[in-house]
Amino acid sequence: MADIGIVETKYFTFAEPPNELALQCKEKLGPITLAYETYGQLNLEKNNAVLIAHALSGDAHAAGFHKGQSKPGWWNDLIGPGKAFDTNKYFVICSNVLGGCKGSTGPASINPKTNKPYALDFPLISIWDMARCQKHLIDFLGINKLLSVAGGSMGGMQVLAWLVLFPEKIRSIIPIATAFRHSPQQIAFNEVSRQAIMADSHWKAGNYYAGAHPVKGLALARMIGHITYMSDESMAEKFGRLRMADSEPFKFTADFEVEGYLKYRGDNFVRRFDANSYLYITEAMDNFDALEKGSLEKLLHGHKVKVLVMAFKSDWLYPAYQSKEIIKACKLSGVEASYCEINSTYGHDAFLLETEEETHLITHFLKKVFFRYEVTGDYGA
Q1: Any idea which residues carry the catalytic annotation?
Q2: Mean pLDDT calculated for residue range 299-312
Q3: Could you tell me if 20 and 161 lie in one domain?
Q4: Which of 15, 86, 231, 270 could be joined to 21 by an S-S link, Cβ 3.0–4.6 Å?
């Protein structure tokens, strides 16, 4: 299967004053810019569009290559010609979330009222706000109804937000390794990460943009997070108790391979992510509750949305029982829903790594959703 090739990030700006976006926190924000990428072609009927929602540390660059760079987009194995999200058939869209730091408006963006970075003057955002911003982008692209919305982890939360807010605008959803709401344990891990950032002396209550950034705190937050993304088995397979070649026992340096790996991940992360964005986005995840607006049965009444839920056996950050709660609620609502629990040792990272299994499931699911159009040329309203 071929890759997409060279792609470019585009930018869409909306909510210009006096038409700012009303956020869930009751504040208004505008103008708002979303960075986004598209892959494949939108057909004449504009009914082959798939929206991809990214996870906490992701961005709009989901597939293909940026000019001069050798690293592909974060879901490149699933998006492209002949892949799960087949760009020979589908028009695939991915945007950086509101509050992000990879081209979309967030805490590091310039506040037009002060001509300085927003920092903590940036309003609190929610997963609902992220989905509403995506809806503005979809409207801008001239798409009335999405064939599917798909994503893993925090991306799965955005998928569920679409299901609740805009069921009339989607034909199907694919939430992967996600939850209706965070458990106390999930909130606890995020809070420890936030405290690591805020304890860094360079954080300065978020006002660090003119000087040194809180890189130590952000690196530690990423290290904490990365532990939760893996599993005991995957760590044992990858590292065991192997020691670093240059380790100095009892010197409090990185003696074990796993220690060196976590430090590497943390140091790399600070080069591409903003600490305040990390605070805002994890807070949005913790506050999300897909059922706060009512039962799915009431919300989805009269809508024929198809659902494919995926979970992974070794995922202890988003354990399978949370995915089963989603599938149960969908079935009780009369929604056509399927569930698959993949036997993987990768932990939560499996949604990025188990691409062969995911490709098989997504390919057949989307083919079923798109079947009527492929066979008859008619997809209905």
Answers
A1: 153, 315, 348
A2: 91
A3: yes
A4: 15
